[in-house]
Amino acid sequence: MWAVPPIVLALAKQNLDKKYNLSSLKNIGYGAVLLRKDLMNECAKNTFDTIIGQAQAMIEPSSIVSVEDSRISVQHSGYD
């Protein structure tokens, strides 16, 4: 699922997993702003260890320039 950072923040802070069945989520990708590692980890914990990945883009050339590949890099690589 692709989401904007406020959705990732809501998944991390509002315990939506207790209200909704989020077990089908496998990956959550987001862009626009970098999130802290602790928020990414908290979101993953609240969504049954979903892989959280960030995409970086330059608006002028394209919509997405790079996306983390969780198979070959550290998961939840947000800043400290």
Helix content: 10-25%
Reading off the top of the CATH hierarchy, the class is best stated as: Alpha Beta
Can you tell me the CATH topology? Answer: Rossmann fold
Amino-to-carboxy terminus distance = 24 Å
Could you state the order of secondary-structure elements as H and E? EHEHEE
**Number of helical regions:** 2
Order of strands across the widest beta sheet? 1-2-3-4
- Strand composition percent: 15-25%
Shape assignment: globular
| Structural Rg | 12 Å
Structural class: alpha/beta
What are the segments in which pLDDT stays under 50 over at least 5 consecutive residues? none
Taken together, the total number of domains comes to: 1
How many strands in all? 4
What does this structure look like?
The chain is of the alpha/beta class. It has one domain: Rossmann fold (3-Layer(aba) Sandwich). Strands 1-2-3-4 form a four-stranded mixed sheet. Helix 1 links the parallel strand 1 and strand 2. Helix 1 packs across helix 2. The mean pLDDT is 79.
Compact summary:
This protein is of the alpha/beta class. Helix content is 24%, strand content 18%.
Please describe the topology of this protein:
Elements: E1 2-3, H1 5-13, E2 27-30, H2 37-46, E3 51-56, E4 66-67
Parallel strand pairs: 1-2, 2-3
Antiparallel strand pairs: 3-4
Helix pairs in contact: 1-2
